[in-house]
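# nightly structure sweep
# worker-07 picked up a monomer target from the shared queue
# config: single-sequence mode, recycle default, output format = structure tokens
# input follows
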Amino acid sequence: MDVEPTNDTLHIQFGQEERHGPRTQGNDALVITALLANYEIERVFIESGSSVEILFEEAYDQMQLGNVPFEAIDTFLCGFTEEVVHPKGMISLPLTLGTTPLRTTYLLKFLVVDSLLAYNVILGRPMLNTFRGIISTYYMIKFPICGGVREAPTDALQAHKCCAEAIIRGKKRTLEESPKTEDSNERGKDTVPSPEPNKETPAIVLLVEELPTIELTPGDPEKVTKIGSRMTEDIRNEVVNCLLRNQDIF
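# output follows
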């Protein structure tokens, strides 16, 4: 059954006896298995540096969610293999964490993205804040619910496989994009540097928005600044008025 989260303050602790499964060598990512829209999804990467939740297009296609509304979104993401990525859209799906009989479910917004990363889903800060989750890469992720604390154990082997697959995908793409050389001495050589063991490019995801420009002094191109585009009209007016009142400090 799904249990409503509690509003009570609980102490969340991790102990050595709570270690789950085998541990590979190296500092692997925090990877779990979660229930998303009633689909059991493996390779779910917990990334506290991400400001959004991500559902990768390959997993989205396999889930066959044609009946779920798909929202268009006019924004960009940066952080994927040092590229700026335009999401395919946004979708709202129920995410369930925990194990039977005690689980917690929340409706979260996911950006659908096509990328070379080896994960199916990235869960970021919005999820952690919604579930009030506490993470430990050494142990697991825990969160409070009515009646106690539940956990989503980490999967170190899946994390290691994701790391290895990401290296292979990145190397393959680099080879495909590398210009061919006519130098016979270089022909047949692999010019891609060997990756360091257990080394993975961080998958930190940040939203990129177009920031409107505010003229502090009309007609003076040097007296301008930018503000966020997601404020309400009232807050935006307050911010603009504050900037105009204090333009002498710019």
